[in-house]
Each structure stands twice: as structure tokens, then as C-alpha cells.
Amino acid sequence: MSISVSSQLAPARPADLPAMDKLLQHPQLTPLTAEYGITLITQQLRLLMDELRTRALAGKLTQSDIATDSVIAGLTTRLREVTSSRLKAVINLTGTVLHTNLGRALLPDSAIQAVMKVLTQPTNLEFDLASGRRGDRDSLVEALICELTGAEAATVVNNNAAAVLLMLSALAPQREVVVSRGELVEIGGSFRIPDIMSSAGCTLKEVGTTNRTHYADYERALGEHTAMLMKVHCSNYAVVGFTKTTEIADLVTLGRQHQLPVTVDLGSGTLVDLAQWGLPHEPTVRETLATGVDLVTFSGDKLLGGPQAGFIVGRKALIEVIKKHPLKRALRTGKLTMAALEAVLSLYRSPELLPERLTTLQLLTRAQSDIQAQAEQLQPALQSALGPDYRVSCEPMLSQIGSGAMPVDSLPSYGLVIHYCGSEKAGRHIMQLESRLRQQNEPVIGRIHKNAVYLDCRCLTAVQAQRLQTLWSSDGL
Ligand SMILES: *Cc1c(COP(=O)(O)O)cnc(C)c1O
Asked: What role is this protein assigned (predicted)?
């Protein structure tokens, strides 16, 4: 039976809508029910019918909109949308390797395998296989961390912010912690040293000035309420020009004289000297401990290239106090983290193989020529997808390490630069293009710079490049 076009386009009234229970009995719903379950289907169908009723009342609904097939098609789309994951894999073409908003370090294969194991099987997470008694989850990685850093002891928590909070709460409650005014940092997303201090119940004793802090400033600040001398690594900024900082070694001397612990929040912290691969030097955890400081805190998912975690390493007597603090329990890491961490730390036993094995280092040490070749291969597909109103060129550019590491240094990279060359004003088109890329099925995250969209190919994998090539060659953008 064929229905005429005019009757299909005739307006539909609320009373014309198909009945819910009829629809729910429809044979086409059987496969949907198997996939989504009747509860979700009923809920989404009700919402869809409400929407159709509103449109009917507004006179914006036709007979064809309420045909059973259309309603079921609409329902299927809704079900697909509500069940699709909010956490999506994206393609990072920002040029920032350790991008906090994009989840920082990517894990190497060995860590993925280790995580899979603990996901599906019981483990000795907190069970001592030798004695058959309860164990300590830190013991899974503590010896390895000590081996790699020269520390006497170590503990791991949820992230470095937690590490600093725990260290201060355990060692300096109700007392003063001396920090230079040049180091009162804010790390993006509300980690601020003064706020962490007050959350931990400590009093921040600021010394010196923003650009210059002398040994004598620290010395003068010490008193009966002092609990700790703390240095914070300037991770995401640089103080340049007329500056003076006090060497860690001098603070150690001062701390020893007054029997006060000296601690360093290293932020990114790395376990190997990155200069051996032509990257800027960042103080290693071992070097920092070798100056004689009592404790060092650092992140697991910045330069270390592991999962989100925070470390406190150093003097055994202090670590023991920290481990007994109730916050340690509240801030502890989960088993997935421990599994990934052990796998990543193990890679550091063969440091010369790290650029092949540790994803973060792979990305940081990628040859510019390699990145250039990839950009050049992708250029024609993107140019044809965008059409003549845009000009896509391959250009050298600078990548950032990210996550606060070495904020003033950047890495020579290569990528695609998209300029608008149509007849209208470029600004709006460039913003729209950046947004369209971001809202692709597999989102591409670039950045706008000098009225152009920049797509840095440093973090683009071969597989992602292939998918983009196929997508842009077929569907356009
Ligand atoms: C990144 C950073 C932190 C916070 O570390 P998270 O692991 O993100 O919690 C704290 N201090 C410094 C100096 C940092 O660079």
C-alpha cells in the first residue's frame, strides 16, 4: 500500500501518536530489547513520545514523523546516544605531549598488560605471600623506587597534590613551613601551595621576595614553631632576570643545624637524565635526594610516563610517620594504578631502552623528520576535505612537553597549519573549523594560533593517521 506524499506531510495531532504499549510490542523492538533492556527502552521511548507530543501541539509534526518506522528509528538513535561513552579517545594534535586535560602520560604496553591482569583476577595487592598475612600495597613498588632513586623508603598515593598534602599533614600539623615567595606556585586546576598548606593545617611562612630569596631570609624565619623547610620546583613558570634562589644544599645545611626536615616538591620529577636524549635537563629525583634533602614528592603521570600517582620518597623515619597518618589510607592508590606503576618503573631498570619502550619518551624524542613525513602524507587528504576556502600547509612548529615540565623549552616539531582564504573574515571560520575537528566522531584536538588552526603531528600515531586519512579522503569535514 502506498501512502500519498500529501498525506505523509499532513500535520499530526497528539491524538494521532502511536500508543506506547503497541510500540513496545513491536517485533522490531526485540533486538533493541536484547541490547539495551526494557527499562532503558521504556524510559527513552517515553521521553521521545513527550518530545513528539510537544512538537504536535506546536503544529510541527507530520504524519510521516509518527509512522512506526520513524519512531523506532528515533528511539534507536536516542538509545545509541545515551549509551555512548562520555569518555572518548581523542587525537592529541595540540603539540603538548603531557596534556593534563587530555589525561597526561599514555601507558606503555607492559603497563596495559599488567592492568588487564589485575582487572580480571585476584592479586596479592595487600597480601604477603611469604607469611600468609596482610601485606602493605606500597611494598609492591617500594624497593624498586628506592633502587631507582637512592631513597631509603617510599610511599605512593593518588597524585602529587595528595603526596604534598599528606606529607604536610603528617609532619607539620599546626606548625610553620618555610617556603620562598618565589615558589608559591599554582598548578593549573587549583593546586596552590598556600591552599594545600592551610588544608593540611600548617602555617605558611613566606620568605624573601618573588624574584630573590637569600639564605639569610630562611635563617631569619626559623623559630620555635617551624616544622619544615620546603622548596617547590617552579614547574609551570620561570622567574628570569634579577633573581636569586637559595641552593638546596644550603637549605639542607640550615635544616641540619636546626634539626628540621628539608623537603622538595619536584612536581614532574624524572628518574633519568633527559639530556642524554637531547631533551632539556630536568633535575632527577636521585640528584635531588643526593643533595641531602629529607623528602622529595613528585607525580607519576608527568615525565615519569606512568599512571596518575604521587610519590613521597626519602628518609625512612619520616616515611614511617607518613604511612601511619590516617590520610594515607584516604589517599591510597588503587590496584590498577599499582599494576601500571610497577610495570612502568620496571622499564627504568633498562634506561637505554626507554625511548623505545616508554610511550612518553617515545613521543618526546620523535625525530622532526619523522613527524614531517607524517604531516606531508596527511596534507592532501585534509586539503581536499576542506576545499578551496582553506589552505593547508606543512610547517615546522614547536611542541611543548607539558604538565609544567620545562615551561620555557620546546621541541622542534612539524604539523599542518590551516588558513582560511575565502572571501569572509577569517576569525569565525577558523574558530568553527577548530570546533568541527573537535566534534568529529573521533575528535581531533588542535589549537588556534595567529588566526590559523595548528595541528602538531608529534603525538599522532600511525594508526590514527591512517584513520584520519581515510575519513578526510571520503567524508570530508
Ligand atoms: C604537577 C605538580 C603538582 C601536582 O601534581 P599532580 O600529580 O597533578 O597532583 C604539585 N606540585 C608541582 C610543583 C607540580 O608541578
From this structure: Converts seryl-tRNA(Sec) to selenocysteinyl-tRNA(Sec) required for selenoprotein biosynthesis.
